[in-house]
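Each letter names a residue; the fold follows as tokens. Both lines appear below:
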Amino acid sequence: MFYIGGELAQSRLGLPKSLTGVFQGLLLFALLACDTLIHYRIRLGRTGTKGHA
């Protein structure tokens, strides 16, 4: 879908191929980053273990 969307943006909006390639790379990076963050569930702050010995 990224490839088809890039081709469509090139033909209809007249964007250069390099710009659509950068946009596709950013979308792929964001998708992989979100997938990684959801999988590992990074949590900030304390875990609530205070008082347990």
Observations:
- Residues 2-40 form one domain.
- Residues 6 and 19 are 9 Å apart (CA to CA).
